[in-house]
Amino acid sequence: MTDYRVPASSPPLSTRRFVSPLDISITASAEDTVVAVSGEIDLGVSDDLRRALDEELRFKPSALIADLSAVSFCDSSGFTVLVQIRAKAEEAGVPFILVTQERALLRPMALLGLDAVFTVHPTLDSARDMLVR
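Request: output the structure for the sequence above.
Response:
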């Protein structure tokens, strides 16, 4: 696939797309790495999400942000991936932040008690603002 540029607070160090039925784009800068996901996260694609997040975590970014703003559905396999990545990020000392306002994600997270586990922001800007503090 073709690389493309995504605006960030500073010029991206790299921008990549991950080939998957799930649309995953990655933008890395000095401040953070954003893994933007769109589509539905289910058993068929959760391993793709895991690989993308694991790969970025190996680079030990200043912060790893999973932008799930365009995700319309997430099953238990997707939440399992997010919980596992959060644990790996914590072990590596890398802040892991979720971005979403989607009820389809927030409601199950609340029911599962994951709202107490994850740092969730409604927008990418608010997530980045939190990192600056």
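Residues 14-132 form a domain with the Transcription Regulator spoIIAA fold (CATH 3.30.750.24).
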